[in-house]
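To assess whether ligand presence alters the predicted conformation, the chain was also submitted together with NDP. Input:
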Amino acid sequence: MKEQVRAEIERDKIKAGLAVVIVGDDPASRVYVNNKKKACELCGIQSFEYALPAETTQEQLLELVDTLNKDSKVNGILVQLPLPKHLDEKAVIEHISPLKDVDAFHETNVGKIMIGNYSFLPCTPAGCMELIHSTGIEVAGKECVVVGRSNIVGKPMAMLLLHENGTVTICHSKTKNLAEVCRRADILVAAVGRPNFVTADMVKDGAVVIDVGINRLENGKLCGDVKFDEVSEKAGYITPVPGGVGPMTIAMLMKNTLTAARIQNG
Ligand code: NDP
């Protein structure tokens, strides 16, 4: 995907720029921001980093977003979440111009996804769809189960599967008989945020299993929401953690930045 973005940028001589804003010194956020910068370099996208101190005020952050909204070199704006507790994430997201909202978190873009008329898709669910497509399995008519209903992963994921005519069930912490529901899935997406939550007895033979979870264990290692060793024995296809959805998310961010540049340059 990144090579494809780079090839398009070179072929069509596109100038694309992505501004990444990070507030405070959360180590995980720092790793994500660095990975995004590296991906920009690889794709030929100019990256602009704004590293602000943890005590940045809401007003200062909104002012920066205003400046970036007006900057013609910046086609995409990404504010790395989570923000420090004293800042209002929702207000910051709503301040980003929907045309530069390459994360597709702005209410305008969320609404467009709902009705299926969108320019950008949120990077993580869009990356999951690419992974599902890469199996060659058609979503239409399949039983799809998404565990998790957050605004940034679970809900848009379910919507994308629905747009492709999957029969979609969304599960959450109040779902009864979760294992039984998951066992029905031809396509199972886990976005729970609990290490090794999905076990082999919850998975149908041959299912496509997409593991969105990124959990850090006490020993410092990363693991997903799916118990990879046992589920990989049963699944037809499975994504690993680390790897899989994480790198795909960044690749989709590059694609969205290219799309934003194309739209803004007419
Ligand atoms: P949230 O915490 O916002 O949502 C978690 C969801 O899981 C909620 O809907 C919650 O239900 C549900 N849940 C929690 N416990 C249970 C349970 N016991 N049974 C059933 N459902 C449960 O997380 P996110 O959606 O933001 O992220 C999910 C995971 O994906 C995290 O590990 C995160 O780090 C990772 N992530 C990875 C990305 C990537 O690039 N690979 C990008 C974004 C996130 P309820 O709504 O009822 O509380």
